[in-house]
Amino acid sequence: MESNLEVWKLAHQLTIDVYRITQGFPKAEQFGLTSQVRRSISSVPTNIIEGQARQYKKEFIQFYT
Fold first, then answer.
1. Which residues form a coiled coil (predicted)?
2. pLDDT at 54 over 90
3. Half-sphere exposure of 48 (CA within 13 A, CB side)
4. For the chain, does the N or the C end have fewer beta carbons within 10 angstroms?
5. How far is CA 55 from CA 20, 49, 58, 59, 60, in A?
6. 23 to 20, 31, 32: CA distances (angstroms)
7. Could you state, in order of their start, the residue ranges of all structural domains in the chain?
């Protein structure tokens, strides 16, 4: 799902960049640091989209924080 929100576009690009950068991490970190960094960065655009889809402003704000 895509969004017209500029912040989502920036977060999505950051996610792509982090995945590219973490490809260079040591193989020994594949299931440790690499996985943790990728999961945390990918949650940012996901939370933005999820918050945007909420009906109430309070829920919307909760996903941004």
1. none
2. no
3. 17
4. C
5. 35, 12, 9, 7, 8
6. 5, 12, 13
7. 6-64
Buried b (16+ CB within 10 A) or exposed e, 35-49: eebeeebbebbbbbb
All residues at 6 or more sequence positions from 48 whose CB lies less than 8 Å from its CB, including other chains: 3, 5, 7, 8, 11, 63, 64
Whole-angstrom distance, CA of residue 47 vs CA of residue 5: 13
